[in-house]
Amino acid sequence: MVNKVIIAMAFDFGITNIGIAIGQSITYTAQPVTTLKTNYGIPIWNKLIPLVNIWSPNILIVGLPINMDNNEQNITIKARNFANLLNNKFNISVELHDERLTTKEARLLLKNKHYKTNKIKIDIINQLSAVLILESWFRKKFFKYY
Q1: Model confidence over 10-45: pLDDT tens digits?
Q2: How many angstroms separate the Cα of 10 from the Cα of each of 112, 115, 119?
């Protein structure tokens, strides 16, 4: 039996920006797509709709910002609302995935590998955070040891 390839689009949700990544279940890897500006956490739909249409994901993954002590914060509620908006708009399955420390990890990766300056563009950080969210989701979904 051949398993269906999953094309997943991930979102690093934020109040001013949303980082987006795309990945697939053949190699369980993701790549950055773009960062979109938001209007206080509401996406600019005429920018987001074409991306979803072009990439045709089977599932949408939204990073869920949770505090280290497992408590939710205001942005957690906004991320859940964003996930509901995505589901209603595209009628594609949406899953929330713990995104703790992805922004910190993205900053460290960029600082150590690509950038020698202290000023790393937030757009790139948001995109890399979305990549980390999606690759973490793949590991959790498909690998028993994770």
Answers
A1: 999 989 999 999 999 999 999 999 999 998 888 999
A2: 24, 24, 25
CA distance 15 to 34: 16
**Domains of the chain and CATH, by start:** 7-72+92-142 (3.30.420.140)
107 residue type, one letter: R
7-12 and 17-24 beta bridge pairing: antiparallel
Beta carbons within 10 angstroms of residue 31's beta carbon: 12
Mean pLDDT of the chain: 85
SS3 state of residue 142: helix
Q: Is 41 left (phi over 0), alpha (psi -120 to 50) or beta?
A: left
